[in-house]
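Q: What residues go here?
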């Protein structure tokens, strides 16, 4: 029996913040995706506008919304234009080719982008599964005060003690304790791509790890 091709996590930069359109396309192809979002319940005029949009049965599914009965939630990207996808080598090469070919994705409402590469640009940057898990743990913890840093911003912050959170909504998260604008915060990184800094975490909820 032939083994299925290995899949890895990759990061995509989708121009003009067309992440929902790209998410929809990749999911139609049977690929797992991850988008860091905040989910907000819509009320009043915003709710009515979303309900009207979603009532158009001839329109494609709008991934910006989650409908639960009469309640509608909007998905708000926490990091503009950044989408993660789990793909095989062949799949990520195909995505990159389509990004590079003018007009290849226009029929899906996508106006270009790129797949993140390693620092020497020799290959696509594979995201270790643990880094992806840690990033998602923090983003999905429901904790407030999260702040995101691009690669050129967060590299200078990776100098504090490495710790693990032992309790609370982010239990199990690992990262660096670093002072950012006078506050001691936990920094969880996807190397070369993005980092998320939490709000203050009490020292008694942290343990130092090697």
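A:
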């Amino acid at each position: 029996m032939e083994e299925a091709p290995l899949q890895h996590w990759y990061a995509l930069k989708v121009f003009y913040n067309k992440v929902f359109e790209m998410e929809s396309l990749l999911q139609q192809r049977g690929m797992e995706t991850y988008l860091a979002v905040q989910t907000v319940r819509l009320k009043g005029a915003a709710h009515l506008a979303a309900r009207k949009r979603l009532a158009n049965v001839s329109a494609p599914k709008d991934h910006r919304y989650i409908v639960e009965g009469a309640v509608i939630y909007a998905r708000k990207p926490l990091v503009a234009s950044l989408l993660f996808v789990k793909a095989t080598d062949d799949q990520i090469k195909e995505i990159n080719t389509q990004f590079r070919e003018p007009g290849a994705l226009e029929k899906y409402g996508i106006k270009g982008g790129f797949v993140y590469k390693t620092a020497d640009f020799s290959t696509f940057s594979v995201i270790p599964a643990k880094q992806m898990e840690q990033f998602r743990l923090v983003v999905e913890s429901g904790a407030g005060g999260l702040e995101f840093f691009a690669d050129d911003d967060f590299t200078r912050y990776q100098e504090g003690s490495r710790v693990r959170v032992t309790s609370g909504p982010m239990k199990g998260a690992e990262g660096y304790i670093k002072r950012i604008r006078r506050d001691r915060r936990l920094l969880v990184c996807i190397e070369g791509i993005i980092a998320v800094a939490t709000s203050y975490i009490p020292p008694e909820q942290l343990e130092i790890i090697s």
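A: Context that may help when evaluating the design: The mean pLDDT is 90. The chain has two domains: 8-115, 129-208.
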